[in-house]
Each structure stands twice: as C-alpha cells, then as structure tokens.
Amino acid sequence: MTPLEISLKMLPAIIAILSLMLVFYVGKTYHPMTALHRTYIRIDGILHEKKFLFDYEETRRFLQSHGAAEHFGPWVDPVKYLAIRICLAAIGFTVGIYVNAFLGLVGMGLGFFLPPLLLLYMNNKDNDAMTPQIQTLYSLLQVQIHAGVPMIDALSESYQSFPAGRLRNALSEFATSIYFNGSFDKSLEDLNGKFDNGFIDSLCIILLQARESGQAMKLLRDISQQITDMQAGLQLKRKEKLNRITTFCLMGIMGAMIGVALYAAIIQMYASVGNF
C-alpha cells in the first residue's frame, strides 16, 4: 500500500478525531449552546466578508430564488447550506475511499454538488407546476384591470384561488408588504428575487410599468399568448415523448416474442437432430 493510499484511508479517522475534539471543546464551556451559537455567528460574519470560493450574497440569492426555504424550511441559510455540502462531500469521500482513491474523489464531488443539483431540479418542477397558475394570473389581471380595478388590488384578488405553494405565498407576502410597509420598489425586488422564472420577471416588469405609466394591458396580452404558445409546445413534446415510449415498448414486446419463437425453433431443431 502506497503512502498516498494510507493517508487517504486515515483521513476519515482524522476528521472524526478533530470533530471529537471540537465537541470536547464546546462541552467544557459552561453554556455549550451559547458557545456554539457564538462560533456560528463568528463563522457567519467571516463568510459575509470573504468571497474567495464562497460568495455569501450570491449563495443567499441562489437559495432564495430556487425555493430552498419552501422545500427544506426557513432554517436554511448560506452558512448551513455550505456546511451541508461539506458534510455530504465528506460522507461521499468516506464511502468511496473504501473502494479506491478515485471513487473517493468521485463520491466527494457528488456529495458536494448534490444540494445545488437537487435545488435546480426542484425549481424546474416548481416552474412547470406554476406555469398554468401564472397564465391564469395574467388572464385574471386582464379582466380586473379592464374593469378599472387598480393593479395591486387586482393582483391581491387574483391569487386567492391558487393552491398553497411558492407562488401564492410570494404574492401574498408581496401584497402584505406593500399595504403595511408602503415600499413598492423594495417589495417588487423581493418578489422577483424569490423565483428563477422568466414569466415572474415579466410580471414584475408589468407591475412596474403599470405603476409608472398605467399601461399594462398590451404586455399582459402578449405574455399570456406567449405562455399559451409555450404550453402548446410542451404538450406537443409530451405527446411525442409518449409516442416514442409506446413505440419502444411495442418494439421490445415484438423482439421478445421473436426471441422466444426463435429459441423454441432452435430447441425443436436440436431435439429433432438428436432423434436421428
């Protein structure tokens, strides 16, 4: 066994020893949770200032726009998120190193990048689920604004029928923030920051234009038509995908039937030859 392999195999044990030493250090204090909280605040402040390999604000925006609080809970912040990624990387490395060093590195990479990949996947699923709601929202806003209802009041009325989820929660917080705080620009920025969705970006532009000029109907109609066209395209893609899956299944069944028939014919042929 080479020195490198010995060192890599000893690394999990070293990590465990250091973790144990940290626990003992915290345990010696009179108020261990206070010390732990103080350490967390210190690390949080350091990460706020340092941007080398970790940008606190960029990570915060990523977590907010991809619905980390909705999926995992409000306890998620950039520091805890980074700690989870490091822990998953250590677990992946520990599992993989028992096979070989290469799998240890692969497991470390998979563990480290699993949380952002998972958030990207869940955000895409959320966007697909929100698209019909956003289209309904645009249609309701058109009707309300055409009837002379102010834009913010129309928005407050329109989302009431939506099921509980990211979109309804965000719109509710947006309307509440405007009514109680009176800061439209800040509330609109917070709403836009909660999503990574082009149609939400367009909605924020429409709200801003409606506030500044009062002209939003044309944009609402145009974007509503864009969503309708996009949904029609997605429906066509789903239909084509279903047709491909059906074709492959039928081909597989036919191949299996042909294989069984050939196998039976070959067995029969060998049996006939054996009788001679």
Written account of the structure:
It is a multi-pass membrane protein. Its main location: membrane. There is one protein chain. The chain is flat. Residues about 30-35 have low confidence and may be disordered. It starts with a helix and ends with a helix. The chain is mostly helical and about 280 residues long. It has helices at about 5-30, 30-50, 55-65, 70, 80-95, 100-145, 150-160, 165-180, 185-195, 200-210, 215-275.
Brief description of this entry?
The chain is mostly helical and 276 residues long. The protein has helices at residues 3-28, 32-49, 56-65, 68-72, 78-97, 101-146, 151-158, 166-181, 184-193, 198-212, 217-275.
What are the main properties of this structure?
11 helices; 276 residues; transmembrane helix; T2SS_GspF_sf; mainly alpha; flat; 0% strand; transmembrane; membrane
Task: Count all strands and give the number.
Answer: 0
Q: What is the overall pLDDT average?
A: 76
The biggest beta sheet is recorded as:
none
How many helices does DSSP assign? 11
Radius of gyration from CA coordinates: 29 Å
Overall body shape: flat
Terminus-to-terminus distance: 62 Å
Task: Note the run of SSEs as H and E.
Answer: HHHHHHHHHHH
Structural class: mainly alpha
Instruction: Kindly estimate the percentage of residues that lie in beta strands according to DSSP.
Output: under 5%
Instruction: Indicate the percent of residues in helices.
Output: over 70%
Low-confidence stretches: 29-33
Please render the helix and strand layout as text.
Layout: H1 3-28, H2 32-49, H3 56-65, H4 68-72, H5 78-97, H6 101-146, H7 151-158, H8 166-181, H9 184-193, H10 198-212, H11 217-275
Helix pairs in contact: 1-5, 5-6, 6-7, 6-11, 8-9, 9-10, 10-11
